[in-house]
């Protein structure tokens, strides 16, 4: 069965071919952003990575006509630890211009949320102002995952490595990834289940200096408390914040107290 991830990755190959034919846009003035890892590690509050998300395969159109810079300012003013910008166009209606717009508006860490399969996408992310990139274990063979991880690190970027089960967690740990995200959304069925975070947390080496981020399906303080109690340091939140009429209140309600796990 062809999954949505298969379809996204097939489209991504075409996009990469186009990127390789052209030249990388001019590099923005790169400002040094604080480390995302440092912002999350041993934080006493659950931190929030807030996403700019216009649309998605599972929900269709979420926020038509939003202005990324305005949304990013609201997120930063409300205390977001990082802003995630979806840069995939066919499935999420995001662009690298959105990323550049956000990068020139806020000074907190910025995550380029895309389906990265080639180093040129990392160059685009960096040139648009990202300080963090996402690598999805399910999308990459181990050798490729490692080479992209090392390439991003060599460019001074942090890497959030996304996993969905304990086999993928082992693969992320083989990279020595410090920022590991568990996606609560099954990318084949779109089903969201916060107990995915609990499953990964059960074998997560918290005693090593690493942080666990719970991604997708976080709507309120109850969800936030649940994943904080599992051991997450942060949540990655898109739809619920995009749909909220009161970003400040919605975001701050997710910053629940958490127990710091020390080694
Ligand atoms: O959101 C989707 O429908 C989706 C489908 C296929 C691949 C990835 C998808 N989303 C990317 C994300 O990881 C989420 O945008 C992010 O975790 C925020 O999720 P949410 O808070 O549920 O909007």
From TrEMBL:
Pathway where this protein functions: Amino-acid biosynthesis; L-tryptophan biosynthesis; L-tryptophan from chorismate: step 4/5
CDD domains: IGPS (cd00331)
InterPro entries given in the database record: Aldolase_TIM, Indole-3-glycerol_P_synth, Indole-3-glycerol_P_synth_dom, Indole-3-GlycerolPSynthase_CS, RibuloseP-bd_barrel
Superkingdom, natural source: Bacteria
Reaction(s) this enzyme catalyzes, per UniProt: 1-(2-carboxyphenylamino)-1-deoxy-D-ribulose 5-phosphate + H(+) = (1S,2R)-1-C-(indol-3-yl)glycerol 3-phosphate + CO2 + H2O
Keyword terms of this UniProt record: Amino-acid biosynthesis, Aromatic amino acid biosynthesis, Decarboxylase, Lyase, Tryptophan biosynthesis
The UniProt record lists the keyword Lyase: yes
Single GO MF descriptor: indole-3-glycerol-phosphate synthase activity
Primary enzyme class: lyase
Keyword Transcription attached: no
EC number: 4.1.1.48
Annotated Indole-3-glycerol phosphate synthase domain residues: 5-254
One example of a Gene Ontology biological process annotation: L-tryptophan biosynthetic process
Family to which this protein belongs: Belongs to the TrpC family.
NCBIfam families: PRK00278.1-3 (NF001371), PRK00278.2-4 (NF001377)
Name of protein: Indole-3-glycerol phosphate synthase
Organism, as annotated: Psychrobacillus psychrotolerans
């Amino acid at each position: 069965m062809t999954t949505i991830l298969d379809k996204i990755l097939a489209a991504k190959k075409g996009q990469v071919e186009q990127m390789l034919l052209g030249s990388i846009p001019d590099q923005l003035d790169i400002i040094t952003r604080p480390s995302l890892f440092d912002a999350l590690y041993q934080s006493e509050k659950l931190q929030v990575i807030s996403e700019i998300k216009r649309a998605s395969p599972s929900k269709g159109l979420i926020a038509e006509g939003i202005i990324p810079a305005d949304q990013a300012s609201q997120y930063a003013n409300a205390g977001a630890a990082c802003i995630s910008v979806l840069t995939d166009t066919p499935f999420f209606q995001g662009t690298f211009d959105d990323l550049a717009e956000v990068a020139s508006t806020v000074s907190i860490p910025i995550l380029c949320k895309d389906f990265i399969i080639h180093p040129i996408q990392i160059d685009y992310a960096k040139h648009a102002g990202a300080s963090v990139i996402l690598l999805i274990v399910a999308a990459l063979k181990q050798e490729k995952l490692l080479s992209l991880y090392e390439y991003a690190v060599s460019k001074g970027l942090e890497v959030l490595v996304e996993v969905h089960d304990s086999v993928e967690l082992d693969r992320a740990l083989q990279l020595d990834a410090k920022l590991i995200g568990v996606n609560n959304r099954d990318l084949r069925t779109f089903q969201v289940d916060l107990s995915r975070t609990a499953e990964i947390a059960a074998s997560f080496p918290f005693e090593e200096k690493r942080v666990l981020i719970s991604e997708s399906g976080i709507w309120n303080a109850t969800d936030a408390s649940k994943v904080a109690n599992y051991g997450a340091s942060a949540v990655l939140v898109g739809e619920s914040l995009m749909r909220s009429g009161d970003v400040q209140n919605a975001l701050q309600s997710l910053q629940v107290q958490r127990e710091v796990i020390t080694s």
